[in-house]
Amino acid sequence: MRIAELRQRLRALGAKPAHEERVLRLWSQARPQTSGRRRIENWLPLGLREALPSLEAELASLARLRSAHGGDDGSQRLLVELGDGQTVESVLLPRDGLCVSTQAGCAVGCVFCMTGRDGLLRQLGSAEIVAQVALARRQRAVRKVVFMGMGEPAHNLDNVMEAIELLGTAGGIAHKQLVFSTVGDPRVFERLPQGRVKPALALSLHTTRPGLRAQLLPRAPRFDPADLVEAGERYARATGYPIQYQWTLIEGVNDGDDEVDGIVTLLKGRYAIMNMIPFNAVDGLDFRRPSAERAGAIMRALNHRGVLARLRQSAGQDVEAGCGQLRSRELARERIEIRPVVA
Questions:
Q1: Annotated catalytic residue: which of 89, 128, 165, 233?
Q2: What is the 8-class DSSP label of residue 159?
Q3: Any catalytic annotation for residue 56?
Q4: How far is CA 24 from the centre of its chain?
């Protein structure tokens, strides 16, 4: 379901703009439709009033909690079941953050990521994206939403932009607390500046070498790292939000001194933050994370040389819940359960 379709249905039930915004606000903020100072029987049109119970049930069915996995870091990984039975993952982060999925599966095929191993299964509608926020808000407060879960937001741009607009208005989330994460796609730099709500931007860099980037992100647009940084810098200066560059640290692949030199060349003096994230182990992949000492040394070297860098950990590592892993384990368990018995 798309938010635009939901708005049309509300209007067909007699909703005026104020009624429409009220319904969307209460839904996206996980509050009952009977909330508020005004009694609905004295304000909402009769047709809308009568439809509210079934509408609330339908919106709740867009994203249901299949299972939750708490981490020692305060995070909670959620396996979310969509209305058609498909599953995606959301992550409640420390300090009132939430990471949401924009697709079931992913077409980019990053070689170090579990999500893309089965390819793209389907796009999420904008209402399904917002429904993940409503579901999470029933667990605890959410004041920041990052579009960094399953999927590439640039490949589902219309739905993601629609969700961002609702969350940045009726959803009550500050624009700079909405973070659009992408491997880099020219359409992003065309569309985001045109939006009513302009989110912060996170760009997946992972290496400064074009050839290696093509190997690590085999189906991403062929965006030279230097050109990607230039496009990011223009957006950062236009919005006033620094670009967050994402770098998955993989031992022996992109943790060498040559990459440190390349990062300094690209990012020194830029309106940017480099987030270094040690690789989160994935079953069936031979990649390894560098030692804590090496990761710390890279971060310190970058900061010393004029690049603001932070060392981050993927949430929920102690429960082996890297993005896509919960879903993968659930599917594997289902396959075992339905395996026919051979006489």
A1: 89
A2: H
A3: no
A4: 21
* 144 strand-pairing partners: 97
Q: Give CA–CA dist 262/253, Å, rounded.
A: 14
Cα–Cα dist 279/325, whole Å: 14
Q: Is position 110 annotated as part of the catalytic site?
A: no
- Around Cβ 288, how many Cβ atoms within 10 Å? 13
**pTM, full prediction:** 0.90
Alpha helix (H) ranges present in 3-125?
Answer: 3-12, 17-28, 46-61
Q: Return the beta strands (E) in the chain as ranges.
A: 63-70, 76-82, 87-93, 97-99, 103-105, 120-123, 144-147, 178-182, 200-204, 243-249, 272-278, 309-311
- Judge residue 12's burial from the number of C-beta atoms within 10 Å of its C-beta, 0-12 exposed, 13-18 middle, 19 or more buried: exposed
Tell me the angle at which helices 157-167 and 126-137 cross, rounded to the nearest 10 degrees: 40
Query: How does DSSP classify residue 125?
Result: P
Task: Give pLDDT tens digits for 49-87.
Answer: 999 999 999 999 999 999 999 988 889 999 999 999 999
**Which amino acid type is present at position 302?**
L
**Site of tokens 């798309």:** 2
**Which three-class secondary structure state does DSSP give residue 145?**
strand
Backbone angles phi, psi at 275, to 5 degrees: -100, 110
Question: Around 171, how many Cα atoms within 13 Å sit in the side-chain half-sphere?
Answer: 30
Alpha carbons 207 and 215: distance in angstroms, whole number = 10
Q: What's the Cα-to-Cα distance from 333 to each of 86, 103, 114, 327, 339, rounded to whole Å?
A: 15, 22, 16, 10, 10
Separation of CA 137 from chain center: 16
Identified catalytic residue from 99, 106, 110, 323 = 323
What digits encode the pLDDT tens for the residues 134-193? Answer: 999 999 999 999 999 999 999 999 999 999 999 999 999 999 999 999 999 999 999 999
Whether residue 149 contacts residue 99, with contact meaning beta carbons closer than 8 Å, is answered with yes
Phi, psi angle pair for 98, to nearest 5°: -145, 135
Q: What whole-number distance in Å separates Cα of residue 143 and Cα of residue 179?
A: 12
